[in-house]
Automatic annotation (TrEMBL):
Subcellular location: Nucleus
Gene Ontology MF term list: DNA-binding transcription factor activity; transcription cis-regulatory region binding
Domain of life: Eukaryota
InterPro entries: Homeodomain-like_sf, Myb_dom, Myb_TF_plants, SANT/Myb
Keywords: DNA-binding, Nucleus, Repeat, Transcription, Transcription regulation
PANTHER family in UniProt: F14D16.11-RELATED (PTHR47994:SF5)
Presence of keyword 4Fe-4S: no
PROSITE patterns membership: HTH_MYB, MYB_LIKE
Name assigned to this protein: MYB family protein
Residue ranges of domain HTH myb-type in the record: 9-65, 66-116
Myb-like domain boundaries: 9-61, 62-112
This protein's GO CC annotations: nucleus
Signal peptide per UniProt: none
Length: 380
DNA sequence: AAAATCTCCAACCGCACCCGT
DNA sequence: CACGGGTGCGGTTGGAGATTT
């Protein structure tokens, strides 16, 4: 089933490239240029998959690539762009001359994401953890937060990494970095004490089990390498999935992340206030982007959460189709509600605020990233 | 000094899109 | 329109080197 492999994996060399192999690629490209990578290994005398050759060239051998450390300005730009468009590494890389999407992705995963977490910023939503805690408390009815595990203090309450660009720290929009996470949480929700890690959330009583999987989906996406946590004490077992094939008749047409849906109040009229963080740039700035329905996506929404819990163990599994993460739909939050009429009324009532939100975000991004709005900006 | 652990990043994987046939 | 090959993309892995115990 599915697509056959591009080459016989058992007969091609894999792993690190040798200088000799690099030289062959360079020689081939200098003589023939780029094109039809499938035939490159044979023509260049390499026992490699064509795809591997292309990757080696685009990520490492291209003469226009930088190989030095990221500059503070680059760090700042990555963070800003990630905040605006999410993990569209190729798009972000296009704004960083000499950097590849792989470079940017690796730098984000190994450095910037951790920096933000240490500073109390959720790297997915770019919101202070405190705000998320507060919002989560609001929607789940969390009141008993006194049992937060102090042992978790180390993960997020540690000293800020002072290698982090001072330019970023002094950017007004990141001024929240100057506060510890504890301060932030106290500010947003005085009832919360010693918030330290996402893990601690698993200790909370679950008042609305329909919302829990969505929350953990986003947590999982914040921490891609989520592994069983021995410090958690969750006591739930729940499986959640939402796929296009299972979607209700009402096709959701707004695009925002699961977190943003979750963090909003699903029954109020303000649910779209936080949803515009991760729109597609191309859609965001398309001529039709002001139309609510222009946000409609055909992408498969396929989130799969599996939480198995004992007193000392939980794990999360997230399986998301390529575009799904960026186009998370409200299906995610309403999967178990099969009342199509409710859905229709729900979306109808929120349409105006949704449009307003889009327009507001549009203006915000216009002022924040004018260069990206230039016609020459190549989204795809 | 050795072992264990961590960090970083090159490379791989699989899926989706594009485009020619 | 359907199909298939080539390419782009984002998520994940493996292992070398660095750091800590």
């Amino acid at each position: 089933m599915g697509r056959p492999p591009c080459c016989d994996k058992s007969n091609v060399k894999r792993g690190l490239w040798t200088p000799e192999e690099d030289a062959k690629i360079l020689a081939y490209v200098s003589n023939h240029g780029i094109g039809n990578w499938t035939s490159v290994p044979k023509k260049a005398g390499l026992n490699r998959c064509g795809k591997s050759c292309r990757l080696r060239w685009t990520n490492y051998l291209r003469p226009d690539l930088k190989h030095e450390r990221f500059a503070p300005e680059e760090e700042e730009l990555i963070i800003k762009l990630h905040k605006a468009i999410g993990s569209r590494w190729s798009l972000i890389a296009k704004k960083l001359p000499g950097r590849t999407d792989n470079d940017v992705k690796n730098y984000w995963n190994t450095k910037l994401r951790k920096m933000l977490q240490k500073m109390g910023i959720d790297p997915v939503t770019h919101k202070p953890f405190s705000q998320i805690f507060s919002d989560f408390g609001n929607i789940s009815g969390i009141s008993n937060t006194g049992n937060l595990n102090k042992s978790l203090n180390t993960s997020l309450m540690s000293e800020p990494d002072h290698q982090f660009s001072s330019a970023i720290l002094t950017t007004p929009e990141h001024s929240c970095f100057k506060k510890t996470m504890e301060e932030q949480v106290q500010e947003y929700n005085p009832t919360v004490t010693h918030p330290t890690s996402w893990d601690f959330l698993a200790q909370f009583p679950v008042h609305d089990t329909k919302q829990l999987p969505l929350f953990f989906n986003e947590v999982s996406s914040s921490c891609p390498s989520s592994t069983p946590s021995s410090s958690s004490t969750s006591t739930f077992t729940q499986s959640y999935s939402c796929q296009k094939s299972q979607a209700p008749l009402i096709t959701p047409t707004c695009t925002f992340t699961c977190t943003e849906f979750l963090l909003s109040d699903p029954v109020s009229s303000t649910e779209f206030q936080h949803q515009q963080e991760q729109y597609d740039f191309d859609e965001m700035f398309s001529p039709t982007n002001s139309s609510t329905m222009a946000m409609a996506q055909n992408d498969v929404s396929s989130c799969n959460i599996t939480s198995t819990g004992s007193d000392d163990d939980w794990y999360l599994n997230r399986s998301v189709g390529r575009s799904t993460y960026d186009h998370g739909t409200v299906n995610n939050g309403l999967e178990e509600n099969n009342n199509a009429a409710d859905h229709a009324a729900y979306y109808s009532s929120s349409a105006s605020s949704f449009v307003d939100g889009i327009l507001d975000k549009d203006r915000e991004l216009h002022s924040q990233f004018p260069p990206l709005l230039d016609p020459s900006f190549d989204c795809y």
